[in-house]
Amino acid sequence: MSAKLSTHVLDLVTGRPAAGMRIELWKIEGKxxxxxxxxxxxxxxxxxxxxxxxxxxxxAYELLFFVKDYFVTHHRDSPFLDRVPVRxxxxxxxxxxxxxxxxxxxxxxxxxxx
Length: 114
Fold this sequence. Notes:
Blueprint: E1 4-6, E2 9-11, E3 16-17, E4 22-27, E5 33-39, E6 59-66, H1 67-75, E7 83-90, E8 96-98, E9 101-103, E10 108-110
Parallel strand pairs: 1-8, 2-9
Antiparallel strand pairs: 2-3, 4-5, 4-6, 6-7, 9-10
């Protein structure tokens, strides 16, 4: 298993990957520090890992998914959700962490994937 942090987003309204969603990665220990901003590709994934093996470090993080912007752009809806924060900890920087988001304009679910 290669050390990395990855994510993907599924649009449960269409049952398809959520292409074009902005995601920010924040380190949240002490003050919040923006680490990286990425956009999902046609597969609802980022082209590269959010963090690769050289960037992995133990600590508390937050992936911030720009859900409202995505749904306004792709569905012309005025969704209930705005930005969805998912806070998690990297305990083992040598491990792979995958944080998927399943989302509609009204609800979301996440889990630690493989």
